[in-house]
Design a protein that fits this description.
alpha+beta; Aldehyde Oxidoreductase, domain 4; 2 domains; 4-stranded mixed sheet; 8 helices
Length: about 350
């Protein structure tokens, strides 16, 4: 963020009556909640998740997961996990999520757990199916499964990468001509795995945010200039999805800091219960948000992924609050601590209303 440069700019602008502030806030977010946390209190909230992966008759993979897609990109993450652990391009993977009457039982999407728990289950199911498929390939090729590998959707020699068998041909034999396989050998073209964290009640996503903004001391309005967030959500499966989740979370946190407020009259009737009266941040009011990462995989899973869903939201309000107070410090304003930081509250802190 070029902190020294921003401080120099801030000093120069203050001499011209322009008041800018810099704020920081570190944060810790609990993710991947385990059964140990909810189970102790007796709550019937499942903290495990499962995935079933099947090789279909055309050589493509179908994933059934108890995780639910709510716009955060869970289906893409599950497809990536299976594609990577099995050895096929991602366009060969189809994901089915939702009703746990039809998918492995799981907890769905909440508490930043879809990638960390559901993704781990999908990863392990893909690995298990890969072992099953290599066993079939070994039987068909009269080779040891350990000498074979699956790369880019093809069974190959592990040592030199020479192509030995296409997955669609393997699936054709397994499904339609299993009688040609060795006596007593059963091809298993489906694998199910479940996962729940065991070593710790949570995985801890953490990081720090910075905000640079300008306060109009005549009107009390705040103009957001730039925002930064560096976070550690463990192994990053899809960098673009993670960055956009963080940006979305930061916007939500800024909304709490500057705009969102439930208002009631003396009878308890809500006065702004619609989107015309309840203020939320809009794109034109948001700053550019730069994202950076430190990667410390959680040791509780092979994949090492932590949650990222609320990481942006957690630090943004305090970050903006500190920046506003930093901007007003030379004016000896009363410190602001009560969200949302509306123009009226800022002018009251300055003593002008």
């Amino acid at each position: 963020m070029n902190y020294a440069g921003l401080r120099a700019e801030q000093k120069a602008l203050r001499a011209k009556g322009i008041h800018r502030g810099i704020g920081f806030a570190s944060f810790i977010e609990v993710t991947n909640p385990s059964a140990a946390f909810y189970g102790v209190g007796g709550a019937r909230i499942t903290s495990q998740d499962g995935a079933t992966v099947k090789l279909d008759a055309q050589g493509a993979l179908i994933v059934h997961s108890g995780v639910t897609e709510q716009g955060q990109g869970a289906e893409a993450v599950l497809a990536q996990c299976v594609a990577s652990s099995f050895g096929v391009p991602i366009d060969r993977v189809r994901v089915v999520t939702g009703d746990t009457d039809n998918t492995p039982y799981g907890g769905g999407t909440w508490a930043s757990r879809a990638a960390g728990i559901g993704g781990e289950a999908a990863w392990q199911a893909g690995k298990a199916l890969r072992g099953n498929v290599l066993a079939v390939a070994g039987a068909m090729l009269q080779a040891k499964p350990d000498d074979l590998d699956i790369r880019n959707g093809v069974v190959v020699d592990k040592t030199n990468g020479a192509e030995r068998l296409a997955l669609d041909e393997l699936a054709r034999v397994a499904y339609f001509r299993p009688d040609t396989l060795p006596p007593g050998f059963q091809a298993e073209m489906m694998a199910t795995r479940h996962y729940v964290p065991r070593a710790w009640p949570f995985a801890f996503t953490n990081g720090i945010q910075a905000s640079y903004l300008e306060v109009d001391t005549d009107t009390g309005f705040v103009k957001l200039l730039k925002h930064w967030c560096v976070e550690d959500c463990g192994t990053i499966i899809n960098p673009q999805l993670v960055d956009e989740q963080i940006r979305g979370g930061v916007v939500q946190g800024i909304g709490a800091a500057l705009f969102e407020h439930c208002r009631y009259d003396e009878r308890g009737q809500m006065l702004n219960g619609n989107m015309a009266d309840y203020l939320v941040p809009m794109a034109v009011e948001m700053p550019d948000i730069d994202c950076g990462h430190v990667v410390s995989p959680t040791a509780d899973s092979e994949l090492g992924a932590k949650g990222a869903g609320e990481a942006g939201t957690a630090g943004a309000p305090a970050c903006v609050m500190n920046a506003i107070n930093d901007a007003l410090r030379p004016l000896h304003a009363q410190p602001l601590t009560d969200m949302p930081f509306t123009p009226e509250k800022i002018l009251r802190a300055l003593g002008t209303v």
